[in-house]
Write a structure and sequence with these properties.
By secondary structure, chain A is mainly alpha-helical. Chain A contains 15 helices and 6 strands. Helices cover 74% and strands 4% of the residues of chain A. Chain A has a two-stranded antiparallel sheet. In chain A, strands 3-6 form a two-stranded antiparallel sheet. Chain B starts with a helix and ends in a 5-residue tail after the last helix. Chain B has 11 helices and 12 strands. By secondary structure, chain B is α/β, with parallel strands linked by helices. The chains are: A mainly alpha, B alpha/beta. Chain B: Belongs to the bacterial solute-binding protein 2 family.
Chain lengths: 328, 321
């Protein structure tokens, strides 16, 4: 019974998220309190959604890349580049130009990764490692190593504003989720991506343009990362090339994996990747609220991730069932 | 050419050759770590100004955070026969061999900003560094004075876990808290020295402490985290600098903007001018043989709204922070 329940797709993730929210409530009694503050919802739950937005955006692009049996390590560096561009241009040229340039840079970065993987056939982990290392350097060149601040109110709104009380970053994530979902699940595209990841050669023979598929997912991943970078810069009203998006590629991959998407490609779930991102952020916010010494942060995080992944493991569920039967 | 003219020319050449030996024309090689932070960039630009002020030729080698580049730079300085070497060490160990080479070439080495392992103590002339425990104490003492005996709950934004600067700035602040029964650190969490994490952690502090009503002051191990925390307080409808006092360390330009706007109260300077005292020590050593103390501590100056923050902001913003 337990075994079958846990194998229902997505149930393990939802249970994990609810359990973590319950723990958050236990360590911090006001966790679910909500109020309006300057036309914006205010509360720990909103923090989870708002702070989780950059990783959720990264996961949205990453999940498609991983579905093709790829991986994109450069998303954190792309965030730094796009944030640096947006912050440098916003005050002089206004939001449309700054946003277009930042997202354009993200597309270019994605195109570069896609070119290396799809056309030159370089292994994804190595191909994207190049931009992961070089990209942060590019961002530092743009900002000249300092934190570039800006005051352009429309760019600040992207990070700190609200639509009907909901923080803008959350609205952006929901918008991107709907667009991505409509494109890949509203058509056969999602299936073709999964086929490419499942068996590229067979898909090629079946007439799927696997190169185009792979190129497209890296471009989309670059765009999502660029958007995340703009939001991260807008949040602190400045571009911090040294730290923006640092190690977030790992959180994004983790979110996708927690969401049940296999690193071997072949199948994916957008919604569960979002749940994965929420699990990570609910855990981070909970750790901050708990008041434990910061030395424990990473330890707690590792333990929680282990438990969530064990919950999803069929072998673990089997072992549980065998133990349960033995006890009867 | 007459013999008189030849003599004059020879004298002139001899004079020119003799000139580098005078104190006014020293050549110093500076192996800088890189430009990983705004402070580092400011240190490089202040070093250049300080050298020009003293008519010293400063050759700066950027090591891009790599020890092997620093060792290469020191070796090339030794080969060029510079009068002194400044070293901002990227790590604390592994310097013995190259510093011995400098010692054999009789070139004094001065450490800037960071110290190295004690095994190499006799290999350098002096170290010019700030005392980060003292910085934390200066911040604490300002707060103790500002609240004047009233009960005060402090939240602390720590630097990166395990970084010696973070450990020391905490230690210094805690030593003042221990002496003042009215001060109490109610929450302490790491903000990794960044604006984004400073903001996120402050958001959670505000929620955990009754919407910020139970917080009387914020202490941040650097100004960048405080800039993030100030945004978090404003977004929560609090008035930083009034409802909640702020004190942080580093004195980067943006915190002066906040102090000028009344949104921050105090900052303790980590001076980017490490080269000035180092140059003074070298010039005295070269001219009169004065051996400086093994450690030259830079001043940890406290700045508040009383120090014309706008003017300091204008003077600091061009330094590369």
């Amino acid at each position: 019974m337990m075994q079958r329940l846990l194998q229902t797709r997505g149930l393990a993730q939802i249970i994990a998220l609810l359990a973590i929210l319950a723990i958050d409530r236990a360590v911090s009694p006001q966790f679910f309190d909500l109020r309006m503050q300057d036309g914006r919802l205010f509360g720990s739950l909103i923090d989870v959604l708002n702070r989780g937005a950059p990783v959720a955006l990264l996961a949205l692009g990453m999940v498609l890349v991983i579905a093709t049996r790829g991986i994109d390590l450069s998303v954190g560096a792309v965030m730094a580049i796009s944030g640096a561009i947006a912050a440098s241009l916003a005050d002089t040229y206004g939001l449309p130009v700054a946003l277009a340039a930042a997202l354009g840079a993200g597309l270019l970065c994605g195109l570069w990764n896609g070119f290396l993987v799809a056309v030159l056939g370089i292994q994804p982990i190595v191909a994207t490692l190049i931009l992961m290392v070089a990209g942060r350097g590019v961002a530092q060149l743009i900002t000249e190593g300092r934190i570039v601040t800006f005051t352009a109110p429309d760019l600040v709104w992207l990070g700190n504003g609200a639509v009907l009380g909901v923080p803008t970053p959350v609205v952006v994530v929901i918008g991107m989720l709907i667009i991505t979902g409509a494109v890949v699940r509203g058509s056969a595209l999602g299936l073709l991506i999964e086929a490419t990841g499942g068996n590229a050669r067979a898909s090629e023979l079946a007439g799927i343009g696997t190169r185009a598929m792979i190129l497209a997912v890296y471009v989309w991943c670059g765009l999502c990362a660029a958007l995340a970078g703009v939001i991260a810069a807008a949040d602190i009203m400045g571009a911090d090339a040294n730290n923006a998006g640092l190690w977030l590629e790992l959180d994004a991959i983790l979110a996708v994996v927690i969401g049940g998407t296999s690193l071997f490609g072949g199948r994916f779930s957008l919604a569960l990747a979002m749940v994965g991102a929420l699990i990570i952020q609910a855990m981070n916010t909970g750790i901050l609220l708990s008041g434990y010494p910061p030395e424990f942060n990473l330890l707690v995080k590792a333990a929680v991730v282990l438990v969530v992944l064990l919950l999803q493991s069929p072998r673990f569920a089997n072992a549980g069932a065998v133990l349960g039967r033995a006890r009867q | 050419m007459t013999s008189k003219a030849l003599l004059a020319a020879t004298a002139l050449v001899a004079l020119t050759l003799a000139l580098p030996a005078t104190a006014a024309e020293l050549t110093v090689g500076f192996s800088q770590i890189g430009s990983e932070s705004g402070w580092r960039a400011a240190e490089t630009s202040v070093s250049k100004t300080e050298a020009t002020k003293r008519k010293v030729t400063l050759k700066i080698a950027d090591a891009q955070q790599k020890q092997e580049n620093q060792i290469k730079a020191i070796r090339s300085f030794i080969a060029q026969g510079v009068d002194a070497i400044f070293l901002a060490p990227v790590v604390s160990s592994g310097w013995d061999a190259v510093l011995k080479e400098a010692k054999e070439a009789k070139i004094p080495v001065v450490l800037l900003d960071r110290d190295i392992d004690p095994s190499g103590k006799e290999l350098y002339l002096t170290a010019v560094t700030s005392d980060s425990v003292h910085e934390g104490a200066v911040a604490g003492e300002w707060l103790a004075k500002a609240v004047a005996g009233k009960q005060c709950n402090v939240v602390e934004l720590q630097g990166t876990v395990g970084a010696s600067v973070a450990t020391n700035r905490k230690k210094g602040f805690d030593s003042v808290v221990a002496k003042n029964a009215n001060l109490k650190v109610v929450r302490s969490q790491t903000g990794d020295f960044t604006r984004a994490k400073g903001k996120e952690v402050m958001e959670s502090f505000i929620k955990a402490e009754g919407g910020g009503k139970n917080i009387c002051a914020v202490y941040a191990h650097n100004d960048d985290m405080m800039v993030g925390a100030i945004q978090a307080m404003k977004e929560a409808g609090l008035k930083p600098g009034k409802d909640i006092l702020t004190v942080s360390i580093d004195a980067v330009p943006d915190i002066f903007k906040a102090i000028a706007a009344g949104e921050a109260n105090a900052t303790v300077e980590l001076t980017p001018n490490m080269a000035g005292p180092a140059l003074d020590a070298i010039m005295a050593y070269k001219a009169k043989g004065t051996v400086p103390p093994k450690w030259i501590q830079t001043e940890s100056k406290l700045y508040t709204a009383a120090d014309d923050p706008q003017k300091i902001y204008d003077s600091k913003k061009g330094l590369g922070y």
